[in-house]
Amino acid sequence: MSDALLGWLTKRRESQALKSMRDHLALTLSCADELSKAINSSDKGDYQEAEASIKRVSQMEKEADFLRRKIADELAKGELPSSDREDLMRLVRTIDWIADWSKDAARLLAILLPEFSKVPKGLKEISMEMATAIRSCVSVLADSINRLGKSSKEVLDLGDQVERIEEKVDEQYEEARRLLAKIDEGDLKIGAVILLSEFLDSLENVADWCENTADEVRVIAVRQASETP
Prior knowledge:
With 229 residues, the protein is an all-alpha fold. The chain has a single domain (3-227), classed as Phosphate transport system protein phou homolog 2, domain 2 (Methane Monooxygenase Hydroxylase, Chain G, domain 1, Up-down Bundle), CATH 1.20.58.220. The chain has helices at residues 3-10, 16-43, 47-77, 82-112, 121-146, 152-181, 190-227.
C-alpha cells in the first residue's frame, strides 16, 4: 500500500470516494441481511414479508451498483497513484458481486415462493443455515475492510475468519445438493427443482465472492504492513 493510499484510508476527514465506499459496503451487508430475512419469512409461510424483503434486496443492489459507478468516477478524479486506484476498484467490484449474487438468490426465491411450501423441510433448514452463515460472512468481511489503514493484523485475522465461514457454507451447500438429489418426483415439479438448484448455487456464490473480496483486502493489508515502518 502506498503512502498516498494509507493516508487516504486513515485521514480523519473522509473523501467523498471513501464515504461512498463505506455506503456501498453497508448496502451490500443490508442485501445479505434482507436475503436472510426473506428465506426465514418464506419458511414461516409469511410470503408477503418475504416479497417485501426480496424487493428491498433488489432496490439496495441497484443503489450499490449506482455507488460503484460513482466511486469509479470519484477515484478517476483523485490524486491516488494508478496502482492504488486499481486496487480500490477491484475491491469495490468484488464487493459489488456479493450484492449481485444476493439479488440473484432473492430473484430466484421470488419465483419459487408459490412452490416453497412443498420444498422438503431439510432443504428449507439448510437454506436458512446457509443464509445465516452468509450474513455472518459479509459482516466479518465488512469489519475487515473497515480496519484497513488501522491494523493489518486484524484485517488478516478477519480475512481468515471469512475463509472459515465460506468453507462452512461450502459444506452446507454440499449437503443441500445431496438432499436435492433425493427429492421425490411427487414433491416438486421439475421446473421448481431446477430453480431450487439455481437458488442454492446463488447462495453459495455469495459466500464465494466474500472469500474473493477477502483476498483483495489481504493484498492491500499485506502491502500496508510491508510499507509501514
